[in-house]
Structure formats: structure tokens, C-alpha cells
Design goal:
The chain is an all-alpha fold. It has helices at 3-25, 31-41, 48-59, 67-88, 100-104, 106-127, 130-156, 161-181, 194-215, 227-230, 236-244, 247-256, 261-270, 273-290, 298-312; strands spanning 93-94, 97-98.
């Protein structure tokens, strides 16, 4: 067995351990809640955040026992936000399957999300590390502020590029930042890598969200297009389009937004907006990658760079 395949197997083994921790933690004697939890666990996504945590732990030559528990915590925080997002967005489908909101109702989805948060913090308490507890608590507050800021701006229909970047910093990048750096706080010997991996995670999270936003306008991506559009969620493609449209045509864009997807797609194509968004995401990813040159395990860092670059190429 070569070292690369061995390493891939070691990462997958860690992911399996992470999923086992999640499964054993998420149990309830309330049948409705257990039904919701079981349904959610059957819909595992790509698990990008726990994978990043485990890969970053390898890059700093982490030899402790808390990496899979931290990965489980990060994934549960992410799942909690999805449960709440589905209610806010009135989403019926996620990962090509009906959402908990659709099958069991809004209240069940909200309470399931709350249960994820509570279970995550129960696991955090078992680690008994004040610095880790503080950072996860701060990240959770930041994410929830981002959710509220996005909803406020959606209600007011007021958004500009600085506000857009503030929202994705809070709502998306903060959890990436937590995933890539939190293991550094487990022992003093790893703390020097904490600011490096925080910056890496922040930039990666911003790029990830930009790519997610442009996929919403990308036909044949394997994902249903127009979800953000029909919710009138203003993202970078629309901001770029308004910026580059002559003033006398901007009202047409505003009138069509949320109603005429074909027209908006034609204008995005006319101004080459999606390619501009992808170039912006790639530039931010390169900034993320430049943070990684100071990590001690060079082979593990190369694998992390490859994984980071694969995020830029994702289509769904």
C-alpha cells in the first residue's frame, strides 16, 4: 500500500469515527425527534468541514485524541444551521431528498436544529478546554448574527458588496475558520499554527460561498438552478451584474430579479459575470493556499492544497 492511499484511508477512518460519534450522541427517547434525527443522518453531504478539520490536524502533526470529537462538533453545528435555514428559506428539498421541514413541519425542523446545537455543546463540555469552548461559542454567535443580518437585508432589499461579504464572513466563513483551526487549541505545542489556519479557513469559506452562489445560476451543474434567485437573495453574481449594467438598464434587472430567470441568465452571460465570480473565488482560494506554506507536515499540506483546489472546481 502506498503512502497516499494509506493517508486517504486514514482520513476516511477518522471520518467514520466522527460519524460514529455523531450517531451515538444524537439519540432521543422522543419518537418524533428520533425520526427527524434518523432522517437527517441518512442525508449526509460531502462533509467538507470535518474533512478539513482532520486534514488540518494532519498538517500540524496532531497526535491527540480530540480531533474526531471536534470534527463531530463542527458537523453538528453545520447541521443545526441547515435545519434552521430550511425553515427560513421554506426549502422542501435538500440533497435531492425532502427536508425535515417538509416531512415533519417547521417546528420539528427548528427543534431538531436546537437539539443539534445542544448536543454539540454537550460534547464541547466533555473536552473541558476553556479556549475551545470560547472559540466555538464565539463562532456560534457570529453565525447566528450572520443569519439575522442576511434576513434583515432580505426584508429591506438593501445589500451592497461590503454587506454581502460581511454576511458570508459571518454565516459561512466563520464555521470554516473554526473547522480548520480549532484543533490548534488542544495543546500549547500547536497554538502557533492557530492564526495561520484561521486565515486559511476564512478565505476558503468566502471562496466556497461565492462558488455556491454562482452555481445557483449555472445550468447543467447537477443542482437545481434559481433557488437563490426566486427567493430574491442578492448574491455576488447579481451585485456584479448591477455594477456592470448601464444605469438606464439597471431597473430592468431589478424588475426581472426573482421573476424572469431566463432574462437574468442572458444578462449574466452577456457580461460574462459567472466567469468573473469564479475568478474572484479562485483568487481568494489562492490567498488561502498561501497561508499553508508554514505548516510542518509537507505531504499532508500538499494533500490539503489539492483538496482546496478541488473545491474551486466543484459544480454542485
Amino acid at each position: 500500500m502506498n503512502s497516499v492511499s494509506h493517508t486517504c484511508q486514514s482520513i476516511q477512518r477518522k471520518i467514520n469515527e466522527t460519524n460514529a460519534i455523531i450517531a451515538s450522541s444524537l439519540r432521543s427517547d422522543v419518537s418524533l425527534l428520533q425520526q427527524a434525527l434518523s432522517g437527517q443522518q441518512e442525508q449526509r453531504g460531502k462533509q467538507v468541514r470535518p474533512t478539513l478539520l482532520i486534514m488540518c490536524a494532519e498538517c500540524i502533526q496532531y497526535h491527540g485524541q480530540e480531533d474526531t470529537k471536534l470534527a463531530a462538533i463542527v458537523e453538528m453545528l453545520h447541521l443545526a444551521t441547515l435545519m434552521h435555514d430550511d425553515v427560513i428559506d421554506e426549502a422542501d428539498i435538500r440533497r435531492n431528498r425532502p427536508t425535515i421541514r417538509r416531512t415533519l413541519g417547521n417546528k420539528s425542523s427548528i427543534l431538531t436544529g436546537d437539539f443539534y446545537y445542544a448536543t454539540a455543546f454537550n460534547l464541547i463540555a466533555s473536552i473541558n478546554n476553556t479556549a475551545i469552548t470560547q472559540q466555538i461559542a464565539d463562532a456560534t454567535l457570529t453565525i447566528l448574527n450572520g443569519e439575522m443580518r442576511q434576513w434583515q437585508n432580505h426584508q429591506d432589499q438593501l445589500i451592497c458588496q461590503p454587506t454581502y461579504y460581511q454576511i458570508i464572513n459571518e454565516k459561512t466563513a466563520k464555521l470554516f475558520e473554526l473547522a480548520t483551526s480549532i484543533v490548534c487549541l488542544t495543546e500549547p505545542e500547536y497554538q502557533a499554527y492557530y492564526p495561520i489556519l484561521r486565515k486559511y479557513g476564512n478565505n476558503l469559506g468566502i471562496a466556497f460561498q461565492i462558488i455556491d452562489d454562482l452555481i445557483d445560476y449555472t445550468p447543467y451543474s447537477g443542482k437545481q438552478i434559481g433557488t437563490d434567485f426566486y427567493e430574491k437573495k442578492v448574491t455576488l453574481p447579481i451585485l456584479y451584474l448591477l455594477e456592470q449594467t448601464p444605469p438606464n438598464e439597471q431597473q430592468h434587472i431589478r424588475d426581472a430579479f426573482g421573476r424572469d430567470l431566463d432574462y437574468i441568465l442572458s444578462q449574466l452571460n452577456r457580461h460574462n459575470i459567472l466567469e468573473q465570480c469564479r475568478l474572484e473565488a479562485n483568487s481568494i482560494l489562492q490567498t488561502a493556499i498561501t497561508q499553508l506554506g508554514f505548516l510542518p507536515d509537507k505531504e499532508a499540506t500538499k494533500r490539503l492544497i489539492d483538496y482546496t483546489q478541488s473545491i474551486a472546481k466543484r459544480s454542485h
